[in-house]
Structure formats: structure tokens, C-alpha cells
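PT: before anyone asks, these are the final sequences, not the draft ones from last week. 1430 residues across everything. Please model them as a single complex and drop the result in this thread when it's through.
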Amino acid sequence: MIRRFSLLVFVLFVSNTFLSGQPKNFTITQAVLGQNSDFAPERLTGLAWRPSTKSYTYIQDKDLLQVDAQKGASAAILSLDKFNENLKQKGILEARSLRQLIWVDNTKLSYITDSLYMEYDVEKAAILNIINFDENAQNQDLDPLRKRIAYTLDNNLFVVSETSTPVAVTSDKNKGIVNGQSVHRNEFGIEKGTFWSPTGKSLAFYRMDESMVTDYPLVNIDERIAQADPVKYPMAGMKSHEVTVGVFSMETTNTVWLKTGEPKEQYLTNIAWSPDEQSIYIAVINREQNHMWFNQYSAITGEFIKTLFEEKHEKYVEPQNPMVFLKSKSDHFLWQSQRDGYNHVYLYKTDGTLVKQVTKGEGMVTEIIGIDAREQFMYFMSTKQSPLESHLYRVDLKTGDERRLTLAAGTHRVLLNTEAGFFIDTWSSTTVPSRVELYQQNGKFVKQLLAAKNPYNDYSMGSLDMVTLTANDGKTSLYGRVIKPTDFDSTKKYPVIVYVYGGPHTQLVKNSWLGGARLWEYFMAQKGYVMFTIDNRGSSNRSLEFENAIHRNIGVNELADQLTGIEYLKGLSYVDTARIGVHGWSYGGFMTVSMMLKVSKIFKVGVAGGPVIDWSLYEVMYGERYMDTPEENPEGYSNSNLKNYVKNLKGKLLIIHGDIDATVVPQHSFGFLHECVKQGVQVDFFMYPRHEHNVRGRDRVHLMQKVTNYFDDYL
Amino acid sequence: MIRRFSLLVFVLFVSNTFLSGQPKNFTITQAVLGQNSDFAPERLTGLAWRPSTKSYTYIQDKDLLQVDAQKGASAAILSLDKFNENLKQKGILEARSLRQLIWVDNTKLSYITDSLYMEYDVEKAAILNIINFDENAQNQDLDPLRKRIAYTLDNNLFVVSETSTPVAVTSDKNKGIVNGQSVHRNEFGIEKGTFWSPTGKSLAFYRMDESMVTDYPLVNIDERIAQADPVKYPMAGMKSHEVTVGVFSMETTNTVWLKTGEPKEQYLTNIAWSPDEQSIYIAVINREQNHMWFNQYSAITGEFIKTLFEEKHEKYVEPQNPMVFLKSKSDHFLWQSQRDGYNHVYLYKTDGTLVKQVTKGEGMVTEIIGIDAREQFMYFMSTKQSPLESHLYRVDLKTGDERRLTLAAGTHRVLLNTEAGFFIDTWSSTTVPSRVELYQQNGKFVKQLLAAKNPYNDYSMGSLDMVTLTANDGKTSLYGRVIKPTDFDSTKKYPVIVYVYGGPHTQLVKNSWLGGARLWEYFMAQKGYVMFTIDNRGSSNRSLEFENAIHRNIGVNELADQLTGIEYLKGLSYVDTARIGVHGWSYGGFMTVSMMLKVSKIFKVGVAGGPVIDWSLYEVMYGERYMDTPEENPEGYSNSNLKNYVKNLKGKLLIIHGDIDATVVPQHSFGFLHECVKQGVQVDFFMYPRHEHNVRGRDRVHLMQKVTNYFDDYL
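LR: through. Structure below.
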């Protein structure tokens, strides 16, 4: 996210509606591609703490600058030219920038290319520890002692070191068996498939057998003759894949399989090693996803040792974070759970005893940032202050005393250095594009490192209103965002476009720069549209109950809350209530089509991208968590199947899909078109060939131009 | 085509613009589905000559009426009730009408269902000769003596008789080998895959090995999880299928394979048996399609006997009609060829000697209708009178004297009965909806059997002008059709929609009812559009040179002629030249996109269905005939590849494709969209799921509504 930096710019931000000279409008290309490039607020690029020092480093032009946090003295410690000179000597391709260099210890930075890992000693100006690997390698994972790289080639897993040739950890010929890669479609906080033991003696890895899973037939039209390019896609209620965990010993080169047992269709999530490398802990979840067993297995024999504790919920449980062991007490660990209605941290002993609930209260812990060396304080990010904001807190692990360390209203990200006693806070809000500030770790302000100017100073920006509404239950707060047209005249009437997502694990409205909106929304405001977004029940960072309100009945509470938003809009004198449109992608595509069909009198125009149309066509992991299986919940599936509402369509609806979308498969949109045609209902469609679940890259300009044109033509 | 009949209607047609009361407009459903149903001009349903009599029969309501052509006496000879009573006695499902009954001899009518063939003796009111077959059977083919039925099940061929169980002629387990079905993608006048010898002793059949042909990956989205449903699709220049011909003896149940030799990628077309059942004749064409060998093979040994004659052409040869043997001289046969520039009939001897050219002159023989018992006259249909018309002629096989037998200007279809000495002429023209007339076979008018009234009498019909223009070569006549808006006021300006096809084997402009137009064009005229169509060079029924003008350079002369049409339109005072649209399907889709891209200033809106975009993605048979291979003709392929003109697009273009189009595969449109997106060019698209190369049935209403809306919205 950190893109550009100029050290001399310390101009104070004045106002996001301040304009110098004749304000400009965005081109569509700027609106779509510019937000995180040309218009990204200035930040400190590659900002990091140098290990075992009180200095931080960042990239300025071609240099790596080091600044002493206490004394403020700064110096260039490495130049790109020097680095490239070293690379050249070793016959390694030149680097374009220093951004890929990452501190691994006090003097060394790691650097990784398509075919090698290496370290660079800035003191000695020397390249060390080169580990070569296959240029087709994927999922590279360095062991904690930085001696070996695990990687996958096709469906198998390999390990290589500086001195050894690659060792095949697996050699499955059946392509339906996938080793060392992320499993369960990433729906359980799982982001990788290999897990090094603390000293790199052993490598735990996922083995996924998906040979029994049905193929979804995607097609590659880029070949001379289009080619079948199927993906394994287990749909809700259908046969799913079977996952096991292997432990490969570097010493014996043997693999032990953890005895995770039956039923085979279960979820093995949040894998963690014990500090002594004897055990592996796994949060095992049943296919129904309403029961979690937090289990310990022997990493030596694979035997099941014990269940530490269980978690159940009538709707679903979804642990997303592995345990974190304390260093001072290796039988104590931190565990995150939403069991009291909010995501909080609990301190457990490895015998399964709950020592205490570490964090409490209304508000979600969103991340554990770190623990100081003495293990007195745990630092964490939380929404406790406001669901729209993210702040750093610390809690005294003994006393439970909690203190908020970032005070400015807004959305904060921090780099903590407990060794040095500092953190660097990078934050923004609806009125602050970006600031970078140095603090002592107790929250005492040290100094401002950067205050970015408003990158839109020369542009015509619609004004942003943050609104808080009350849901139809009479109690739940809903947060929304209104962006007014740039030519705003309160006596005029403007068309409105609702931008919606509405599904779990996502929050659109935030107290951050642009209010969390995409620049395209401001582009549309320049064209005279009111842009509106509200985070309905089902979205994230509020509470367990807020998010799981959609369970078994997807689309109902979400829609009710969107209609609360519409009621608000109808009360605004400047809204042309006959010209309300809606746009969204993925879950937001589902919401868009739902809104067009279920309350067809309100919405004149809709544009739905990659929409879920029929949840029985969505995959097992996400689909069954929120909806159970089609067999268990026929009514919920039927009520949410948008093919059942086709005949209600009154407005103009454009459906958009990528032809190789392996997330929401094209069958959703194709089946919807089929039903529309069968019922004689006119609907529009566009397909983005060679695009997956989103249209990315330069083609996104084409997409958003198409979306824009559709509203221009019909709203 | 024959749909309704009421004997009492002999009202004379007055004028196609005569209107009684307030004229009505069509609904879109009428416009799309009504032309051949509710608005089909009255005809004599099921009209046929009864063999060995001077009587013809047709269906009136539930009765089969028989009329003596000489005396005029008529009588019901069978009722549906009676027939169903007979069926019921045999335990056969009731028939809905008598339409499927077909005369097979003087007293018997054949009747075929999904699982049986039978004959019905009208004299005895008895069901005879029941041959049962598998209900999944396809390609049923009755032997000439009506003892056996050949049929295919999946990829194999079977024969069954009344008394025997089915015999497997082939039993190929490899699904890539297809027996007894039409081959070469029907591009050589081939409509079936089985050929009974004259007395049914042997069955010749095609065997197509397409196991080496690349799959095109179509997808069936109607399954619970979408399923791959690939088709074998050899693209221009790629590996094609290999065809051989087997001869199965009913007596020995052995199959002899004709030694058609190498190269294996050749075309075996126009299969015919010698009257003595000893030989089989095949027009063998090389893959380049510029050389035909008319070969004789022994049906007993499979040996090649001789080449009777060859035909070559620098562009292509395309024999479309098997030889026809004379009965009086079994070593004489008729052969059709375009070798003198028009399709004509030649008399040959089986030793390969050309006896004479039977028909001559400018104009195409389109069908040999029959030869009288004495083999004095050959009856045939020809465009000799006018390329817009089809007339019956007879030629004296000895003297060559020719006489036109249908005199009324228009498009005629005849039922000839040389035994009785009559023919029945069913014809229409731009001013005559439909007439049925009885003639002596020498052309002497006997009486009118039916004069249909104008089915559009109550409707508002745009007036039809037939126009003749001259191509840019200064000599070639081009025929066009203009349908004016129903509210026509010559002082106003109207938008125009060009409806185009433009490819070989098709002619759109005819002197027949509605001028050959689809009713939708009159629907659009009711909405205020001028509808225009012109048959460019490349279309059929003109001359070899007219049609093969497209060779190796597809899209060029066709476009030039369409622009000749545009020049004509621009000269019309009532045409709004800023509002010209174009619409076409298949080759017409190719033409539509070509016109939108290559002369982008002229056309404001285009709608292209199932368009060929890149001829290298079209199949071998048709593609290489007109374009040679991409390797042989890179320039022609490049010039006609519409992806190369994407950046020219100025107007609004809607592309439509069926998702299981196995003729013009979806890769054409998908690749075009991909290119448009890549170049940032906006284009619209719609896909009809579960539809092949055309959108048929009720869904066609949705399609044409979409096409209509697009012109309404943007033209």
C-alpha cells in the first residue's frame, strides 16, 4: 500500500474540499487505477524496524535510509546501485528497487526472486546464503532458522537448502492430491500449506485429496482451439475434499501423518507447533461447522494426544487465528474466540485450562500485534473505540488493565518494536489522507514523521457524509456513507447509486481516507450522482450476532438494512427517488440482483458483477457455514435463489461475469440468464473473457466504464 | 410448411396493402413465431399423389381426403379416429394427426414413431409390417423394399426387420468412431450416413473416425454442477477426421470396406449405388477441395474400379447431388455440375463418357424433380427465368428442347406425377400469399385448388419494393428489398436497419410471399424503421462466379455490395443517413461486425448473432473451401479477422452467442470481447444459455425483443 515518498513534503492537510484554481475531474482511468498509485497519499515506503536496534528504515528514491528513533539521525545505509552491483557479481538479475528487501536480523536483509532466496549483509555488503529453487516453484516458505526453503511444484512439495539438492517431500502422481498448499478454499484463516517447526527440524504440511470432488468445467479461450481447464469445485451439499496433515522430518526424511481420524470431510484449521516441536495443535471443525475441537497431536508419532477444549455454536464457529505461545511460560498460549459475542483473546494452558479472558467488552480484537519481552503487555488492534475505526491497545496480561495507545480518530496501522520501546503509527481518517507518527510504546507521542497532503487538492471532490441509522429491529446501529455530487445544489434532485457488498468478512464504511470508498464513487459524484453505501447486518467488525444474522436465511436481514438506507435516502430533499440504482460485486452482486428483484419498485437500474444467484452452486466451505446444506435448509436455499424472483424484474439489470471465475462459477450468471430467457424477462449481460472473480489490471478500466455507461444510459 | 386448410376459402387475393378497418400491429410474439403458424397462408396440408392412381390426397381436419385429378370427385378415405382405433388395437400410442402418414404404395401409408415403423393399408384398414426398434434410435432409414430399418444408437449402426432381432452392423467402443451418420459436417450435400442398395441386399454406410480431432469444450450448465460436453471440432488447417465407407451384406452379415485410399483426409461425397447393386459411386474430393474424382468401387470386394471423370477448379468444386441413373438405360446417368458457370445437368455413361449436356444457359438448376416413365422428359426446377424465382421446366432428353411449365411470376414448388400425367404447383410471389394449382404435366392448366387470402389483411404492413442495383464492377446485378415504415410519409426521415446474411448457399431476396423477409422485418416497419436487404456476391442461386467471388478473400466483395446498397439508401429522400443500423446472424453476424468495423462511419448500431470473427476458428470443411488453410492464405485470414479492426469501432455493437453453439463456436465472440476489452473498446454482449447456433423455439421471442430493444435504445 505504501507507494511513494518525498521527504520534503510536510504540508499540512487543510480540507478535502479545498480547491486551488479550477478543480479538475477524473478520467475513468484515474478513477479506476489512480487511487493507490497517482493519488495514493504519501507514505514511508518499505517502513520497517531494524532488528535489535532503535532505528527504523525506509526507502527514499534509490536509497535505504536508516533513522535513529531516539536521536533522529538519519543515514543512507544501502543504495540500489550498490545492491545491484553485488547482485551482478553473483550473476543475479538486477533489482528494480529495494522494496523487496526485508530485515531478517540485525545486519541482513532477505531477497527473493523467481528462482532463489538470498540474504544481503549491509555491513559487509555481501550476498550470503543463496538457496536456489526451481523457477516454477510456488508457495516458497523459509524455515525459521533460514536454512531451507519449502516450495511446491505442481501438486507436490519439496525442500531445498543452500548445500543440498531438492528433496521431494511428496511425489503424488495423481493430480487430485495436492500437497503443501492452502486448503479449504481459504475460508478458515488459512493462507498457506506449510508450517515449519520452531527450529526447522520438521515441516508440517497439508495434503488435500480432491480427486473425489466434481470438476467445474472452465474453458481457456486463449488457446488456438479453446481448451477445457477444469477446476475442482465442491458445491454445497456435495462430496468435498479430504485433508490430512503430514509431518516431514528433515533428519529422517520420513513423513508421519497426524491421526486426525474420521469423518474425513472435516476442517483442519489453525495449525501451530508447540515450542518444543513435540506437538502440533489443530482446530478441528466438523463439516457442519458448528463444533470445534482444539486438538493436540504428537508430531513424532502422529497420535492424537488430547482435546484441550471445544467450542460450539448453534450457527457456526470459525476460528481464524492460530494459538500464540507465551515465551516465558511455554505451557501458556493466547487463543482468539468470538464466544462472548465479540472476538477476544483468552489465555489458556496446554492442559486445556482457561487461565483468563484477556480482552473484554464490546468491540472486536482484529489482530494481536505483539507482546513485550517481559510478557507484561499484549498489544492488539481493536474496534472498541468505534466500529468504523481501528486502534492500538495494550492490555496488562496480569492485571487486565487496558489502555488505548492511538488517540486520533481514524484507522491506524502500527509497526511495534518492543525491544526499542517504540511503535510507528500510520493512520488516516475521512479528513486526514495519511500521517506517520512515532510513539513510545506506552503511547507517548514522540514526533510526526510524515503528514501527507491531500492528493485531490486540484480535483473536484464530492463531499462525504458519514451517517448512522437504526436497523428495523429498533436497536442495531448501521453505518453509512453519502458522497454528494460535486455540483451539489440542495434545491436540485440527483440520482443515487447504492454501492453494496453486504457479506461477511467485509466492511465498506470506515473512518479512513475517502471513508473507505473507491475513487470511482467520487468520479460518479463528479458526474452528478449521489453515491451511497451502508454496511448491513452480515458485514464484519461489529459483533458475532451482527455478522451471523444471515445464517440459514441469507439475503433477508441484509436486504432489510439496505432498505433502511433507502428510507434514509428518500428523506433527503435532494434525492430523486425515481432514479435509484444499485451496484455490487460477488456477495454485492447477489445483493444487487436481490434488490432489483425483491423490491423491484425502488431500483431503476442495477449492475451486478460475479453475482451468487443460487447458493447451492456455491462451494462447501463458505456456503455451508452460512447456509447449511441444501438438504438441511431447503427453504433458505429456495428463498435466496434469485432464479425464483426473475419475473419480478422491472428495471434494467446488467449482469457481469468473468468466464474463468472459479469463486462464483459462471453457472450462476448463465443459469440466471437461462431463467430470464425462459420467462421472457429482458436482462443484459457482459462477460469478461480470461478474468476470474474480479476484473483486475487495466481491463478494470473497461469494466468500470461499462458500469458507468449503463447508469448513464438508463438511470 | 403446410399448416392449415379450409376448403371453402377461395377468396381472391386483392392487395397486400388492402386493409379493412383499423389496421393492427404485431406483438413481438406474432412477429417472431407467427409467420409459419397463425399467419401462414392457407395450403393443402399433407398434399401427396397416391401411387399408381390419378388421385391426390391431403388432410382436411381429421380426415385424409382423396381427390380424383381428372374427375374432381373427392372422398374421405381415412379418419384420424379410425386410424387411432387401429393403433389402439395393436397397443400403439395414438397419433395426434394424420400428417405423418406417407404413401409407400398404392394402398399403404407408412407411419413411424420413436420406436417402430409400420404400414397402414387403407383398403383393409389394417396395420402391417411392424418393425420395432430401440426408442433411442436415430437416423432411421428404411430399405427400398421396406423390409428393414437401419438406425444408429450412439456411435454404432444397427439393422432390424419385422422378424429378426437387431443386428449390430458395427460395434465400435471408441466413441470417436461414428458409424452410419452424416459426415463432413453436412457441407457437401450430405444429409445422411446410410445408403441401401436398390433391393436392400446391402447397406453402405459412413464410418467417421474423429478420435484424432481436437475437442471443442462446450459446457452443459443444466446439470446440478455444470458439466463438460465437448464436441469434435476440426478447425481450418488442423487435423481433420477420416472417413471410410463400409458395405454390409444382409446375407453374409459381413462388412466390406471400400478401398478409398490415401490421403485419409479426403471427402467421400454423393454416394450412389449402381442399379445392379455391384458398384458404388463416390465423388471423392481432396482436402483442398479443388479436385474431384468421380470413382466407381466394387460393392462386393471394395476394390477401386475406375475414375469415370474428374472435375477441377482453381477455387473449389462442390458437387452437391448424387448421380441419378436412367431406368431404360442402366449405364446412363445424370450428373449435376457447375462446371460451365451455372449448375446444370449432364448425361454420362458409366464408362465415363459424357453423352451430352442436358440443360444449358444462364440460370441454375436447383433440383431434378423427375423423369417420365418413357424417359423422354426430365423435369427440373431452375432460376433461369429470374434469379428471384423458381420455376418448373422440362427438357427433352433426346432433343434438348426445353419448356418452362410454371408461368406465373413467383416461387414454385411442385408435386409431379408422371404416371398420372399431372403436377400440382404450390406457389407464391410478393403479391400472392399462396396458390395451389393442378396442371397437366405438359404445363396445361387444369384448375385452381386453393387461393389463400392475405393473412395480414387486418394488419398494418409496410410496403415492399424490390430493387435491382449494379455492383461496383459495373455489370453484376444485385437484388434488394426495401420495406417501408407503415406510417410512411415521403417528406419524413426514417432510420434504416440493414438485415444481412451474405454467405454462400443462401438467398434472402425472392419473389415469394413477403419477398423472402421474416415477419419481424414488417414488425420493425410498424415501429418506423426502413428495413433493407441486399443479396451480395457470395450468395446463392446466381452463378458459380457470383458465389465464389469470396474465395480466399472473404468479406471483401460482400462488403462492397452491401455498400452499393447503402449508396442506394443514401439516395432515398426519406432515409435518415445518420441512423443506419445493421443486423445479421452467423455469416450475417460476420458481415454485421465487418460493416460496423470496416466502414464505421456509416453504421450507428449493429447487432451480430453467432458471428464468425476469425475464420481460423471455423471448421475445416466450409472454412477451407472458401478460404484455403490459414497457412496457405495468411493474408486472407488476417484481412478477414475482425479482431484486427476492433479499434475502428465507433457505433454501438451488440454481440449475441449461444453458449453451446457447435457451428460457430463461442470462442469467436469470446475472443472478440477479449480483444475489445484489451483495447479499451466498449461493446455489448448477450449469451443465450443452452442454445446452439440459433436461438429457436419460444426463446426466439426473447432474442428478437432484445435485438429490437437495442435498435430502439440506440439507433
